[in-house]
Design goal:
Blueprint: E1 11-13, H1 14-21, H2 25-33, E2 40-42, E3 45-49, H3 50-64
Antiparallel strand pairs: 1-3, 2-3
InterPro entries: HTH_17, SinI_DNA-bd
GO molecular function: DNA binding
Protein name: Helix-turn-helix domain-containing protein
Length: 65
């Protein structure tokens, strides 16, 4: 099973986060706005550190358990 999350990057785009989490653009930006998913901007480009995305997913799994 291939992951939509690239392994060679240290930061991912919002569409890549959307694909990895199977969420809408609105929901991803909502997670960013509420500080649940850390991100940064370079110019007009929003990026999410890959480690932050993995941490977010691990936290969600822990909360669900």
């Amino acid at each position: 099973m291939s992951s939509p999350l690239p392994t060679s990057h240290t930061a991912v785009t919002v569409p890549e986060v959307m694909a990895a989490l199977k969420l809408s653009r609105f929901k991803v930006y909502d997670l960013i706005r509420t500080k649940q998913l850390p991100s940064f901007t370079v110019g007009r480009a929003r990026r999410v550190p890959a480690d932050a995305l993995h941490t977010f997913m691990q936290n969600q799994l822990k909360e669900a358990a």
